[in-house]
Amino acid sequence: MAVTRLQVTPARPKLGGALRDAGPGEAFGDELTVAGVRYTGGAAGAEGGDVIAVSASEFSGARLVGSLTRTTFDNCVFDSSDLAGLRADETSFLESAIAQSRLTGLSLTDGVLRDVTVEDTRADLASFRGSKFQKVVFTGCNLAGADFQRVRFRSVRFEGCDLTGAQFSQASIEHNTTFADCRMVDVRGVRGLKGAHVRGDDLLGLAESLAREVGIEVDW
């Protein structure tokens, strides 16, 4: 039976009027509230400690480094930016878009992604453990080895993504979560995917993981 393709349409970020260009070396971590700023070419820095709210801002070719905790990115755009290795635990991304960026090794535990699109982005080995995903779409992303343990999925779609070795132990598929045209080899914690919609071609990649989890020995 064909997978029911339920529509997932995250709200698009709203940047409002003209953005102010960040000055050389200006770090958004210097302020508790940032709005309407464009960070380019490595202008953005991140220094943890305070709660930061960033809204209606754009990160283009920027690199975020350091540590952020309990930060909120609301109506933000990340384009060709580098968040690799960033510690952003308990951080929220709301009505935001991430494209052609690098999130390798990102730590976003106990966070929130709501109304978010992630396209053509490398997020291998990223940790989303304990986070809540609602109305989120991943398209053409490298999520190999990503950690989705205890993640709550609600209206989430993965399309054309590499999920090789991803971890889904104790994940919760609450509503309308679909995997289409994804590579799902050596996935861990397959029971956490109970309730998801998976295309037949993707299920073939899951076969070995399913067999291993229920204790079936397969002779190839």
UniProtKB/TrEMBL annotation:
Keyword Nucleotidyltransferase: no
Pfam families: Pentapeptide (PF00805)
Name used for this protein in its record: Type III effector pipB2
Superkingdom as given in the UniProt entry: Bacteria
Keyword Endoplasmic reticulum: no
Keywords of this entry: Plasmid
Entry-linked InterPro entries: 5peptide_repeat, Pentapeptide-BTB/POZ_domain
SUPFAM superfamilies to which the protein is assigned, alphabetical: Pentapeptide repeat-like (SSF141571)
Species annotation: Nocardia farcinica
